[in-house]
Write a structure and sequence with these properties.
The structure is a homodimer of 112-residue chains. In chain A, 15% of the residues lie in helices and 39% in strands. Chain A contains two helices and seven strands. The longest helix of chain A is centred in the middle third of the chain and has 10 residues, at 38-47. The first copy, chain A, is globular and about 40 Å long. The A-B interface holds A 1-4, 19, 21, 23, 28-30, 32-33, 45-46, 48, 73, 75-86, 96-98, 100, 103-111 and B 1-4, 19, 21, 23, 28-30, 32-33, 45-46, 48, 73, 75-86, 96-98, 100, 103-111. Strand 5 of chain A pairs antiparallel with strand 7 (104-108) of chain B, so a sheet runs across the interface.
């Protein structure tokens, strides 16, 4: 796995997690924010199936393993300071466990 | 500020930071990932100028205050579990301090 020194340092650090922005390749819709450790990133890049680290369950989690709503990875990139990943995917079905296409479903009111 | 109970709990918690995905409204390009505390979110919603919490400098940071590359907020939404925000913005100039439009500039190689 060829990754930047910044990202490698983050993944090998105490916390060891990188934030992952997941964007649908066809629509450019932002679907969700998830987390990866080094193993999740390696599995994702090898299998092309988005695999995350669940911070609540403390385990690897192949997206869609239960629901069938898998994410096939199209491309992945790291940001300028190596602490976030953008994953572009083909989303099968919906991304959100609530049944909506994207997890960002609750609008916040902005002052006039 | 009307926000969900989940998000309020996060912002009032020990860490007190929420991850913010910043997407350009016109192009749907994902520009950057940043962090907000409660004050940053309040200032953002009131001023319509994206304001973040710098984890490295430990201070509030109005995006573009120095560079002029401000982000005018179009809409904001929270995800299903209340621990991430999607901010849609009009980006003035470039988003990245390296001079690129988006901060996600380093492609990661995917296995064939």
């Amino acid at each position: 796995m060829k990754i930047s020194a910044d990202l490698a340092k983050l993944l090998d650090g105490e916390n060891g997690l990188v934030a992952v922005v997941v964007q649908e390749d066809e629509s450019n819709e932002v679907l969700m924010l998830a987390w990866m450790n080094r193993e999740a990133l390696e599995k994702t890049l090898e299998s092309h199936k988005a695999t995350y680290w669940s911070r609540s369950r403390n385990e690897l989690w192949v997206k869609g393993a239960t629901s069938g709503n898998t994410q096939e990875v199209v491309s992945a990139s790291v940001d300028c300071d190596g602490d976030a990943i953008l994953l572009r995917v083909h989303q099968k079905g919906v991304a959100c466990h609530t049944g909506t296409h994207s997890c960002f479903l609750n609008e916040i009111e902005i002052s006039e």
